[in-house]
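pinned: reference chain
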Amino acid sequence: RIETPHGPAVWRHYHRGGLMARLSSDRYLWNGLTRSRPWREFEVLRQLHEQGLRVPRPLAAQIRRSGWIYRGDLMTAWVIDSESLARRWQEQRMEAADWDAVGQAIGRLHAQCCDHADLNAHNLLFDATSMVWIIDFDRARFRPAPGVWCERNLARLLRSLRKLRCAPDTADWERLRNAYAGARNAPSVSNPDSRSNC
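pinned: its structure tokens
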């Protein structure tokens, strides 16, 4: 976390995961600016932020290229006074309205045809007013239409909750699903150019 003229921000350096991390922790193959990870995540966040979704405001992206290799960073606004769904869930402070809020946030994201590559309990934040924000859009992408990817996102979230050794009961998950369906299928009236008709 750093302080900037735009307020508190998060500066994240891109690191590899999995087996590739053994070869290089933070170097990526250069395939052009618009295909770089910082550029793509910045653009996804920019478009979602412009549509009024609760995602961190993108502030800056940096790419340091050396031949066919690059390293990258992304800076976004800090979601002040927030805590993750994972923490709230583990501390047994989740209420019925919280499940509604989570479902609505994901539904609005999918209404914009945005496929979140890693929708887990750590990437959903509650702010001080219990509104839900979605973070970490590395490898996220816009799809032409809703599809099986929507269910994959939800299944990923459910798996992450189960890994916390306390899966939600059927009633709570059903609440989330109902709120999700209502938000995803709601017509967009705030912006006639919204992706919600995708």
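why pinned: The first strand starts at residue 2 and ends at 4. The CA atoms of residues 115 and 149 lie 7 Å apart.
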